[in-house]
Design a protein that fits this description.
By secondary structure, this protein is α/β, with parallel strands linked by helices. The protein is built from 16 helices and 15 strands. It has two domains: 202 residues, P-loop containing nucleotide triphosphate hydrolases (Rossmann fold, 3-Layer(aba) Sandwich), CATH 3.40.50; 167 residues, P-loop containing nucleotide triphosphate hydrolases (Rossmann fold), CATH 3.40.50.
Amino acid sequence: MEYEKGVPFETLPLSAPMLRLLRDAGLYLSTPVQAGCIPPMLEGRDVIAKAPTGTGKTFAYGIPIIERLNPADKRVQAVVLAPTRELALQIHEEFQTLATVRPGTKSVCLYGGAPIGRQLERLRKKPQIVVATPGRLSDHMKRGSVDISTARTAILDEADRMLDMGFVHDVTRILDRMPKRENLGLFSATISREVLDIAWVYQRDAVEVTVREDEENKPYIRQFLMETADKAAAVADILRETGFDRCMIFCNTKSSVERITYFLRTLGVDAECIHGDIPQKRREEIMGRFRRGTLPVFVATDVAARGIDVDDVDIVFNADIPEETHDYIHRIGRTGRAKRQGVAVSLIGDYPSRLRMDDIARKTGNDVIPVRFGPDGKLTADEAREA
């Protein structure tokens, strides 16, 4: 079933403490995906939800999990899988907020690249909610440090990405270890063949929730491209000209991330980067700065930036054009949220990149407008294309 609009939270069968928490946070109207998913998940039904990035999917399954949870039962009651440590950490933070309505509720976040000893210590405190990346949860299961056999609810967040990244065997092994599972929620921006396979094997009579990218839910993002031989200088000049101070820059490789970050710093831009080789503690510090708004420019590869979910990014740059169209859609979807206008600029340094950008524009049906700096140093759009 398609959902185009949210509903007042007070019309949903939620507890008084949960409604009070939402009101205190200034949330009165649900998003469409929350309107579609919360009622069936409260009933313990399977759900498969397709919704654009940034539409409130975490609360769509997080609220029902907390509402159904029994704080007196110290066994694992829910398992949430995410493709990356960054997304897992963000989900964990939101659960910590929601859990305040159920005193005694504990959650744990398990992910690779972090000391396993600290995670073992937290597992000994008997968390009822386990948020994890598939690989690290599999490691703990092999060690015998976590027992998920008592879990009643399982969630795959960003299911398409998780399966695309090669976690299918870990995911199925984890689902097979939950014999008491009552419901499975699959949440994804796209429903791939792999997601459908998981649904066919592990779900029964699932409620299908689809949120279309219509005018109500689709981000408003103006898309531009600029041909330039000096991408770092182009970024610095565009930021200076526009006054934007909340920026994400995407690159295809770790070396490209480091190179553009270095040159931005030489130009006086406060920029930090993350990629797979940066220690986890440092990554968390950088992401924390960006979430708090104290870091204006954040540079990353696609995988490293998964889970950075903020709703006030002014502009996104593609320093390298992605190989896959869905990566482009996911990148630019970091801006234009919360009904704000967003801007995305793709920097073209060679002919193959221009061909790839033309292909992306054709496949997405988007109007990507060429832009350049005029003789006066001002940004000038190609008016013929813009018209």
